[in-house]
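REQUEST FORM: STRUCTURE PREDICTION
Request ID: SP-0412
Submitted by: Lab K.M.
Chain count: 1
Length (residues): 386
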Amino acid sequence: MLFRLLLREVQRVAADHSLILTLLLAPLVYVFFYGSIYQYKAEEEVPIAVVDEDRSGLSQTLITQIDNSQMVNVALRTTLEGAKESMYHGHIQGFLYIEKGMEQKVLSLRQANMVLAVNAARFLPSSEVAGAITQIGLTVGAGVRLQYLQKKGMNTEMSMQEVMPVNVDYRPMFNSRSDYGTFLLPGLIAMILQQTLLIGLAGGSAAERQRGSLAEWMQTAGGNASTALWGKGLFYFLLFCAYAYFFLTVNFRVLELQILGIGWELALITVIFLLSLIPMGIFTGLLFKSQLLATQLMVFSTYPIFLITGYSWPLSEMPPFVKAVSYLLPITPFLGLYQGIVQQGAHITDRLPDLYHLMALWCFYTAICLWKMRRLEKQNTPVHAV
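STATUS: Completed
RESULT:
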């Protein structure tokens, strides 16, 4: 019975050009296209200007160190007004202002100031440039004071304690470079997997109503709604299991992403995730009598869904209504499990609430999908006069 439904779905997909594009072409095109955008993962050589009014050996050393860093490129040295004008025109992403007398203040152990103005309208350059220049400034300043104290007769150990009484050992875990691509790409790949599956399932299920083939679908399943559901979903399950394996091996290798957790645990949660999406997609499609309308809805919902999953912005900071909608999406608990295993090396047992949440949504969408199928079957069953 399931095999006949599988063959039936293969024939229907093969005869529908929109489904062929959605199911066979879109996942591969999307994952390689979007992945290539973030292939380099971190923004480098961000152009800035330097306004050096001190013109001392210390300021030259500081500028050289900044220019030699991988993150920042000193594009020009100019006046304060020239730096502002260049930033307004978009030629630079910020400027560093070094006050006059900085070296003299540092050597006399007084506090010296330098002003870093960054274009915060763009998030990544502002944060990366600020972090890099702050670190370089602290390092150069500490080096100058260390030399000063050594000339006063202090040994190296005592000078280091005086210069840096507290040494912060900063170690970013799981994403050693703290780059944006390593954070975003795994979640983006999971989102592509979900949305292409939902678009195909919703479009294919809506086409059953549009073409009046619901009765034939149920008849092929022997009148059993559960068999009809999983028989239709079997094709999509097998296809997207193959896509998931391809994404997590080939695409991860091409994009230089690592899976820090255990492979079989990742495979298990991916299977549960796909099983929860199948009834959700079929139920969504059965709400519409137009294949085009169902497909358009799923396409336009992609970005809003990604925004409310808690991956790009914490769920705790979202309005209650948005959080409630997010908890109804299988990708929300899946991303918690997936991110823990892929990016942090966690185990399923470390994220049991997310696992229970995902399995509950699987049961929920299966129940309402079967209810919707039985209801439509009754509506399409002719009433014979006695």
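NOTES: The two ends are 33 Å apart (CA to CA).
Reviewed by: T.R.
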